[in-house]
């Protein structure tokens, strides 16, 4: 049997020289050199990820420091990346090259090395594990240096213990990284409105027809452009213009809603329609900017009739670069797209291969131009009237995975609406389900939308409410269709479509039966049905 190698009584490098002797410094230098802890691939991958996506910088900013990099050139590059990020300047090969003085750029390896750095990161999504490896190496180097300093003052027994610590601290480790940690752990996320709308990023607002998606989006645009807290609660530290691409409501309805919001807030807004073929936008809802009126204090609308001319038959969501002109014209930081169905040109958004590329293109556009994009979407027809979850939106297989945030809006009783945060950019930053109240403004003029508090009870879809109401009404006996419809609509405040869906659902479940009386439908509870 092989004998276990015994530890020498005195470390070899200290056998001939006193710890305080002339060669002590050389000995410590040898230890430091022999135990060098530099994770060069991790440093390169971290910088490369930061050059690939701005979101990668936000995930490491604040806890990864320039001094954590062992390579001096990497420290310089990371400091410059952080400086550009803090100034809200896009960070890429071109901007980083331009920001560095020529001599400093050359000392860091030049443009060729910057390109190598970008290629060294397999994916920007894994920037947190890369940066952790850099941080861990830095911490081990600091621990090693501290122990080496203590060795100068330690006695023989303590030196042995310190060397054990040194060996353990600088030894290699293998740790499994979970997928959630790989993608989202310890992210530092910026927001347009925290925690609902990430900046930059794509937020999907979805809900049944008539739930108030367009109106909610308009209240967001109105609050942002005037620097007000949305619903009196959600504040934004971002400033800029808003581009509202409207292929649903149209100018007359939108003009009326703006006037209503203005009256409620006691402000006068200036909005404009964007025409790509005209030098100036047509102004409505107020006077054109005068003097030093900031251009970015404007919401510019792009309505369907103007898009028909501009897009030349190309769906906007297939070529989002069409938005570059109006975005730059007003310094937009917020883009609202109403809606996905109207702007995509797709015949079947339920297909993942159709919806996925749309969200991917919008995310890339948002990252490149530093924007928050709000995309309005409808539930697929198969979901109409049913309980809607995070996947209850057209194209949900792709949207629920790719989108940064998802908000569901439904109508509740008494004219209120409920918003549920279905998906968040950061898993620890979900907003609780809340109610939106609409009340008259000062002197009963206009409308004011406010946060109505947290809603603890689950959202009950209108159709489910309508089903319960139909069963309750029919408890008294058979009733003609119009009588049932009138009674249910008084109770639930639902539309004809919801009522018809509820009737169809109850028939499929065989909870009710129908027969024709004088060419009109008469409903009654089925034998053995709900009582």
Structure, described:
This protein has 531 residues and is of the alpha/beta class. The protein folds into three domains: 40-183, DNAb Helicase, Chain A (Orthogonal Bundle); 193-454, 3-Layer(aba) Sandwich (Rossmann fold); 462-525, Arc Repressor Mutant, subunit A. Helices cover 42% and strands 16% of the residues. The protein has helices spanning 24-34, 40-52, 54-60, 72-86, 93-99, 102-107, 110-119, 127-151, 156-170, 179-183, 213-226, 251-265, 304-310, 324-329, 340-344, 352-369, 396-402, 462-473, 481-492, 496-508, and strands at 191-193, 197-198, 201-206, 241-246, 271-273, 282-284, 299-303, 332-338, 372-377, 405-411, 417-423, 434-440, 447-454, 479-480, 512-517, 520-525. The strands form three sheets. An eleven-stranded mixed β-sheet has the order 6-5-7-4-8-9-3-10-11-12-13. A three-stranded antiparallel β-sheet has the order 14-16-15. It has a two-stranded antiparallel sheet with strand order 1-2. Helix 2 crosses helix 3 (54-60) and helix 18 crosses helix 20. It is elongated, with a radius of gyration of 31 Å. The termini are far apart. The model is unreliable at 1-24, 30-35, 169-186, 276-297 and 381-392 (pLDDT under 50).
Order the strands across the largest sheet as they lie in space.
6-5-7-4-8-9-3-10-11-12-13
Distance between termini? Answer: 84 Å
Radius of gyration from CA coordinates: 31 Å
Which fold name fills CATH's third level, the topology of the largest domain?
A: Rossmann fold
Task: Give the overall average pLDDT.
Answer: 75
Helix content: 40-55%
Give the number of helices: 20
CATH superfamily of the largest domain: P-loop containing nucleotide triphosphate hydrolases
Q: What is the count of β-strands?
A: 16
Structural class: alpha/beta
Please mark out the parts with pLDDT under 50 across 5 or more consecutive residues, or reply none: 1-24, 30-35, 169-186, 276-297, 381-392
In the CATH hierarchy, the architecture of the largest domain is 3-Layer(aba) Sandwich
Beta-strand share of residues: 15-25%
The CATH class of the largest domain:
Alpha Beta
**What is the 3D form?**
elongated
The total number of structural domains is 3
User: How is the main sheet built?
Assistant: 11 strands, mixed
């Amino acid at each position: 049997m092989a004998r276990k190698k015994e530890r020498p009584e005195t470390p070899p490098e200290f056998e001939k020289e006193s710890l305080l002797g002339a060669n002590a410094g050389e000995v410590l230098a040898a230890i430091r050199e022999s135990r060098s802890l530099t994770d060069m691939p991790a440093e390169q991958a971290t910088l490369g990820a930061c050059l690939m996506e701005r979101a990668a910088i936000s995930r490491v900013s604040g806890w990864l420091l320039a001094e954590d990099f062992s390579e001096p050139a990497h420290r310089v590059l990371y400091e410059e990346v952080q400086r550009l990020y803090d100034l809200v300047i896009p960070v890429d090969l071109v901007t980083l090259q331009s920001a560095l003085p020529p001599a400093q750029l050359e000392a860091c390896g030049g443009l060729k090395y910057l390109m190598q750095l970008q290629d060294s990161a397999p994916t920007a999504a894994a920037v947190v594990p890369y940066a952790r490896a850099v941080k861990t190496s830095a911490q081990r180097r600091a621990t090693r240096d501290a122990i080496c300093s203590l060795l100068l003052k330690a006695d023989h027994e303590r030196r042995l213990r310190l060397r054990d610590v040194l060996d353990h601290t600088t030894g290699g480790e293998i740790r499994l990284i979970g997928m959630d940690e790989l993608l989202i752990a310890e992210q530092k996320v910026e927001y347009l409105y925290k925690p609902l709308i990430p900046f930059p990023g794509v937020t999907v607002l979805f809900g049944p027809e008539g739930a108030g998606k367009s109106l909610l989006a308009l209240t967001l645009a109105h609050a942002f452009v005037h620097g007000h807290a949305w619903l009196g609660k959600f504040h934004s530290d971002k400033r800029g213009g808003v581009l509202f691409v409207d292929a649903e409501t149209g100018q007359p309805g939108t003009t009326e809603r703006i006037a209503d919001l203005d009256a409620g807030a006691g402000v006068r807004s200036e909005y404009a329609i964007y025409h790509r073929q005209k030098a100036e936008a047509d102004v409505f809802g107020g006077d054109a900017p005068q003097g030093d009126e900031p251009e970015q204090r404007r919401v510019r609308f792009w309505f369907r009739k103007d898009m028909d001319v501009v897009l030349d038959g190309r769906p906007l969501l297939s070529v989002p670069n069409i938005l570059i002109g109006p975005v730059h014209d007003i310094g937009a930081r917020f883009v609202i797209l109403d809606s996905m169905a109207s702007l995509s040109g797709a015949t079947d958004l339920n297909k993942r291969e159709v919806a996925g590329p749309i969200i991917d293109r919008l995310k890339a556009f948002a990252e490149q131009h530093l924007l928050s994009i709000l995309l309005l979407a409808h539930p697929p027809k198969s979901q109409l009237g049913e309980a809607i979850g995070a996947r209850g939106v057209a194209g949900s297989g792709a949207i629920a995975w790719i989108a940064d945030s998802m908000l569901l809006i439904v109508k509740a009783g008494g004219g209120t609406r409920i918003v549920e945060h279905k998906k968040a950019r950061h898993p620890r930053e979900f907003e609780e389900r809340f109610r939106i109240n609409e009340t008259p403004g000062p002197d009963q003029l206009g409308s004011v939308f406010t946060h109505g508090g947290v809603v603890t009870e689950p959202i009950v879809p209108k159709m489910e409410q309508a089903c319960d109401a139909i069963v309750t009404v029919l408890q008294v006996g058979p009733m003609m269709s119009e009588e049932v419809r009138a009674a249910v609509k008084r109770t639930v405040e639902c539309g004809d479509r919801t009522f018809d869906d509820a009737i169809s659902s109850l028939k499929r479940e065989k909870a009710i039966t129908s027969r024709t009386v004088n060419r009109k439908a008469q409903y009654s509870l089925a034998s053995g049905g709900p009582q």
